[in-house]
Write a structure and sequence with these properties.
Largest sheet: 8 strands, parallel, barrel
Number of domains: 3
Distance between the termini: 60 Å
Mean pLDDT: 90
CATH architecture of the largest domain: Alpha-Beta Barrel
Shape: globular
CATH superfamily of the largest domain: Aldolase class I
Strand order of the largest sheet: 2-3-4-5-6-7-8-9
Bound molecules: manganese (II) ion
Oligomer: single chain
CATH topology of the largest domain: TIM Barrel
Number of strands: 18
């Protein structure tokens, strides 16, 4: 059973199978969903990981939507070497100009423009007649084509469009130079059977489609995003738009790892394959979770914590006799490794650096020095340092923002018969700033004291504490999400912060300071 073997870039690839391009929109469609915003450094780190896992096209953002988006698309375009980098643009001159400015220095730039073709969207959103939409779609595709050979056109709300009109638009944009045509299920309305028929039908009505890349983009409002994408592949689609863990607008997008593993495990059924290195899936999911602070549901396919756990005794027994009894794919095939003892307090910087490299991280010398110092502190407190601990340290190091504030020390007084108080001392530009606050419990007191230091009243939106590994001496991984009500967004701006320590109060304070530093960085505060 070849499906079980290998780690992704396996030897079982067969010629004659269709190659399906993976278009990742984690940084655009995913990032625009609530609680998923990422800063520039985080986006670059995520983009590098997506490239490492073999994604064909990365949609890095929507260049015209904000100056921050423009800079991140431009930086990602200049950083990546193997992937196509796309920016989204509405079908207008200003949008396309801005998109091109952002992606022009990419190794393989793509402009991705979109215009809605459904009666609902044309009448109520665009206030345009179908003739005007046709005119704008074709004219703007031709305009984008003057800049860029690689142009994708998306007919927004395609699955609810009149198929005759859609075919006309598709023929028009291909004649105008589109090299990829995406027909999205923008509102997550279609079903697998319907999407299958839809793509066969449109290929017949717009035969030029067979000379370009045909793409599907499915949302998950009915929980059918992945199934609809697979049905589209069966109908001849050669590009799938998706996100890590299915993050995205509303109920999200089709989950990349589920599509990839469905094609991998059932390749004879679909007769299609992707270029994804499947053993990078777990790391990509972990990185996204760390950055956004949003956890994956435990029973989520492929990347959920329980996806490979066998609880029932009869199952455990079967798996021990032969994994194939209850496992359709190995944990290793998605990059899930047993947490193993690797290093201790006597390990040197060289051994640590090697281990970090083996885990797939590339750190600068300065980052390695900082990470190694953190490792030594941890190894002193904790008997056994696992891969997960090292990944927690390193992943935090690589997505760090400038440290406007650092923790000097804290004293907390707490108990069930007294009001909690906290004295927090932070350093800023070499100056000590100390404040005292009371609060409902030790963390509330500590967070309020930090608010006093920065002179702001932040809302604590969420707080979570997890153990990185099992055992009494495990590191605590604290997550805080704060909201700056005065921020530029409609409801202010939201920032997540993480902190690691074997002391959970300290981990929580680190997390709060990390979120505050991200706020200072993103809002350009001094
Ligand atoms: Mn979408």
């Amino acid at each position: 059973m070849t499906e079980q073997a290998g780690n992704g870039r396996d030897s079982s690839k067969k010629t004659g199978f269709a190659n399906v391009k993976i278009f990742d929109t984690t940084l655009r469609d995913g990032e625009q969903s609530p609680g998923m915003s990422m800063n520039l450094k985080e986006k670059i780190e995520m983009a590098k990981q997506l490239e490492r896992m073999g994604v064909d096209i990365i949609e890095a953002g929507f260049a015209i939507s904000s100056p921050g988006d423009f800079i991140s698309v431009k930086t990602i375009a200049e950083t990546l070497k193997d992937c196509t980098v796309a920016s989204l643009a509405r079908a207008s001159i200003e949008d396309i100009d801005r998109a091109w400015e952002a992606v022009r220095d990419a190794a393989d730039p793509r402009i991705h423009l979109f215009l809605a073709t459904s009666p609902l969207h044309m009448e109520y959103k665009l206030h345009l007649t179908p003739d005007k939409v046709y005119e704008q779609a074709t004219a703007m595709t031709a305009y984008a084509k003057k800049y860029c050979a690689n142009v994708e056109f998306s007919a927004e709300d395609a699955t609810r469009s009149d198929i005759g009109f859609l075919a006309k638009v598709v023929e028009g944009v291909i004649a105008a130079g589109a090299t990829t045509v995406n027909l999205p299920d923008t509102v997550g309305y279609t079903t697998p059977e319907e999407n299958y028929r839809f793509f066969l039908d449109i290929r017949e009505r717009a035969p030029s489609l067979n000379g370009v890349v045909i793409s599907t983009h499915c949302h998950n409002d009915l929980g059918l995003g992945v199934a609809n994408s697979l049905a589209a592949i069966r109908a001849g689609v050669t590009q799938v738009e998706c996100t890590i863990n299915g993050i995205g607008e509303r109920a999200g997008n089709a989950a990349m790892e589920e599509i990839v593993m469905a094609l991998y495990v059932r390749k004879e059924e679909y007769r299609a394959e992707t270029n994804i290195i499947t053993s990078e899936i777990t790391r990509s999911s972990n990185l996204l979770t760390r950055i956004t602070g949003v956890k994956v549901q435990p029973n989520k396919a492929i990347t959920g914590e329980n996806a490979f756990a066998h609880e029932a005794g009869i199952h455990q027994h079967g798996v021990m006799q032969n994994p194939l009894t209850y496992e359709i794919m190995t944990p290793a095939s998605v990059g899930l490794k047993e947490s193993n003892l690797v290093l201790g307090k006597h390990s040197g910087k060289h051994a640590f650096g090697e281990r970090v490299k083996n885990l797939g991280y590339t750190l600068t010398d300065a980052e390695l020095v900082t990470a190694f110092e953190k490792f030594k502190v941890l190894a002193d407190k904790k008997k056994q340092v696992y891969d997960k601990d090292i990944e927690a340290i390193v992943a935090k190091e690589t997505v760090q923002v400038p440290k406007t504030f650092t923790l000097k020390n804290f004293v907390i007084n707490s108990g069930n018969a007294i009001t909690s108080t906290a004295v927090i001392t932070l350093m800023r530009d070499g100056n000590r700033i100390e404040r005292v606050s009371g609060g409902d419990g030790p963390l509330d007191a500590a967070f309020k004291a930090i608010d006093k230091i920065i002179g702001m009243d932040l809302n604590l939106e969420d707080y979570q504490l997890n153990a990185v590994t099992e055992g009494e001496d495990a590191m605590g991984d604290a997550l805080v999400i704060i909201r700056n009500k005065e921020g530029a967004g409609d409801d202010g701006n939201v920032y997540s912060g993480r902190g690691l320590s074997t002391d959970i109060v300290e981990a929580s304070i680190y997390a709060y300071i990390n979120a505050v530093n991200k706020m200072y960085y993103a809002e350009g505060r001094r």
